[in-house]
Amino acid sequence: MKKTIIYTFALFLFSFQFVAAQSNVEAEKIISDLLTHVKTSAIKTNFKLAMTEKTHPQMQLSSGIFTIKGNKFVLEMDAMKVFFDGKTQWAYISQNNEVSITEPSEKELAETNPMAILAGFKSKSNIQFSKKVKSTQNYCLEMLPKTKNKDITKIEVQINKTNGNLFSIKLTNKNGSVSVLTLSNFQKGLKVGDNVFVFDKAKYKNVVENDLR
């Protein structure tokens, strides 16, 4: 009788682990499908970013428009416009008519490009369906870094079940800060030339250049 109970429990445990593994494979595929689509065609979306820090609980809000194609992007906000062509980044401040030129690291890119966040952490994280966050419209996923000393302790992603569009990304950092990026008016399958992601100095008369490369 005792052996039967142990066998039944072991069978249940194995079955549970198999289902969990299947769920994680499906969760990873949802992320992969999104990233694959961005690599093959451009997307454009409005965004809202809400940030809170442990030491400064007052929420910081910003908004703008993203255009993304593969690892290239343009970020448009009221006070700033950022161009990245896959290697070089130009950050233009309209108030000063000034542009800073850099070659950002993977970590720096992850702070500005939501797809870079997902792509950069995909292979470094365990991806699973969220047990706490539920939605009838979106897949709710969690990306938990395999290495615990990472600055980011958890990434929560919501992707629309019907059209596969990214809806939101929530980043929780080791220092207690939380960033929530919410997207709307998501357009995909756009045809955008690579020149869009390069700062055109001719369009900004008397612009001051700070080359920090």
Structure overview:
With 213 residues, the protein is an alpha+beta fold. It has one domain (24-205): Lipoprotein localisation LolA/LolB/LppX (outer membrane lipoprotein receptor (LolB), chain A). It is built from three helices and twelve strands, in the order αββββββααββββββ. The chain has helices at residues 2-40, 106-110, 114-122, and strands spanning 42-52, 60-69, 72-76, 80-84, 89-93, 98-102, 125-129, 138-145, 152-160, 166-173, 178-190, 208-211. A twelve-stranded mixed β-sheet has the order 7-8-9-10-11-1-2-3-4-5-6-12, with helices on one face. A hairpin with a 4-residue loop joins strand 5 (89-93) and strand 6 (98-102). Helix 1 crosses helix 3 (114-122).
**Biggest beta sheet summary:** 12 strands, mixed
Please identify the structural class as seen in this structure: alpha+beta
Q: Which runs of at least 5 residues are low in confidence (pLDDT < 50)? A: 1-23
List how many beta strands DSSP finds.
12
The overall number of domains is 1
CATH topology: outer membrane lipoprotein receptor (LolB), chain A
Distance between the termini: 72 Å
**How do the SSEs run, as a string of H and E?**
HEEEEEEHHEEEEEE
Q: Estimate what percentage of residues fall within beta strands.
A: 35-45%
Which second-level CATH architecture applies? Clam
Task: Determine the number of helices (DSSP H or I, runs of at least 4 residues).
Answer: 3
The rounded Rg comes to 21 Å
User: Order of strands across the widest beta sheet?
Assistant: 7-8-9-10-11-1-2-3-4-5-6-12
Shape descriptor reads: globular
CATH superfamily: Lipoprotein localisation LolA/LolB/LppX
- Measured as a percent range, the helix fraction is 10-25%
Rounded average pLDDT? 81
Class, according to the CATH hierarchy? Answer: Mainly Beta
